[in-house]
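Q: What would this complex look like in 3D?
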Amino acid sequence: MRETLAEWRPAVDEAIDDLVPREIDAEYLESFFGEPTYEYDPDGIQRALSDPLWDLLDRGGKRWRAVLFLVFVEGFGEDPAEYLPYACIPEILHNGTIIVDDVEDEAAIRRGEPALHHLYGQDVALNAGNAMYFLPLKILTENPADLPAEQRLAAYEMLMYELNRTHLGQGMDICWHNEHEVRVTPAQYLEMCACKTGCLGRIVARLAAIITDQPPEVEEAVANYAELTAVAFQIGDDILDVENSLGRAGEFGKEFGNDVREGKKTLLVIHAIEESPPDRAQRLQEILEANANTDEEVLEALSIIEEAGSIEDARERALELAAQAREEIDGLDFDAETSRKLREFTQFVIDRDV
Amino acid sequence: MRETLAEWRPAVDEAIDDLVPREIDAEYLESFFGEPTYEYDPDGIQRALSDPLWDLLDRGGKRWRAVLFLVFVEGFGEDPAEYLPYACIPEILHNGTIIVDDVEDEAAIRRGEPALHHLYGQDVALNAGNAMYFLPLKILTENPADLPAEQRLAAYEMLMYELNRTHLGQGMDICWHNEHEVRVTPAQYLEMCACKTGCLGRIVARLAAIITDQPPEVEEAVANYAELTAVAFQIGDDILDVENSLGRAGEFGKEFGNDVREGKKTLLVIHAIEESPPDRAQRLQEILEANANTDEEVLEALSIIEEAGSIEDARERALELAAQAREEIDGLDFDAETSRKLREFTQFVIDRDV
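A: Here is my prediction, written as structure tokens for the whole assembly.
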């Protein structure tokens, strides 16, 4: 999968450049957005849209959503090169959510540089992020692969389903974060991940199935694969934060325990509060609720999580989800190469150690 | 039109309540957003979505976008009551843009109360605003009026066209606001209004035309009517700020000249800078660029605008746009009552004095 990512990345970036050029002119605006009633201001739109978008994209990112889409398309027996504009849909959407999330979280840094709202102002950053929600959806109307009307409608309906659930997931996550008490069930945590992270994965998979006209059961199987992999990825993230923190806590001057410091209600925290003796659960809750914690307190919280067996519990769940994801793929008629890539992708997601 | 607004408002609010109930439960979530993979958290979604949405709606608003939609539907010979869920599409979209705009502008007050991000936090407010971009679009998939596939697809394609242009308009406006120099042409200013304010009006008109299956030339005529009326409305806003400020400048303790204080590049400012003698244009530019101005300076700027004949110029343009809007309606086969309402609506927009 690593080679596939490297192989397709330049073509994906070229396809994005076709949709939102680095240099905006009146001709592009007219052809993509339609004729103006009066007169566009290409300079303004350069600064409002193209500059922030390309600033973020040029900072990196593997474009794995676009590439996973192309892997599916190839697995469905079609030529990926013909569907490059569609591969940009989840990729631009994803980068739009990054800009908006950073405003919501008041993040300082993104991909090693100041978050976009610090460079362009909150107004420009937010409007660019939101524009990146709608701009990719217009690709379906442009219809570069000459899809029949039913497929275009199916794609729109799918996108509205998934993008609505994305906002439910983000809503749950934000609300829990603003609450003091940990009152969430493991099932609700998994649902939050399935909505917030999973839906964009589902868009990748379902869009590939819809535009290549797969039967509903195939679309569902690849959607489940993508969702399960995304949820496993999210849990892997939570595990890594605790494990790396426990390993790093002795090192002088290194930050550790960020999730605990932020009071994040991860699957591990939810498990530890459910499974610890009442006084330890109470103590963990206290540390999470506090506005600031000493290193010793953070370490204490991490120990409570470790002693409750929450790391093993989370790892078991992640492995189980990854196994389920692979089963979805095994039930399909993909060629050996595609199956290998998809299994490798899921494996990569739970194996990574950074 | 005033009676029509009062008449329909309760039914519109009931229809919105059907789409996003004031009290969220698992059953609603499942029926509107689809079955969860694991388990929803209705309490979280109550606070993330329903509470902010209804807080804003309960503060007022005439629901004129929904009502204008219903007037069109009736004019096209259909029963408005059957299309109430569709009337909510532009209304929820509009209220979503209000929440997001207030974050972008760092507004303190909305409809006489603290802006939503001050009450719910920037994260909740923004996510709710963005959820309100996608939630109404799902109504087309729910398909309450049992529309054939072509009409649903046409509605989605129309919405993507207009919502993309909305973000172009907002992008131009924000960029100009952040720039010091006034370098915009009147045509670009009108385009900004047509995109930013006009597109939501166009959505109202085109959606009514699409779901009642009108021919393309009718859809285009009502879209033009709505756009022209919206642009006239925007210019009316700019005129009012200058006129009320000139009238109020002598009154002790009253705020005046808000647009000048904000450095807003209105049509009047653009005209005044083009038409004034170089030293006066230069002075106006200076006052607009300054971070803070005394009352005397604001008054000086307003006088430059007045002396340039910019108020008359703007009023002529607004009247011309309103006349064009009425012509679009006169060319259609509406019954006398619908034509009267639509003419009245355009008249109201340019006549208002608050």
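A: To summarize the key features: Strands of chain B lie at 109-110, 113-114. Chain B has a mean pLDDT of 94.
Q: Very helpful, thank you.
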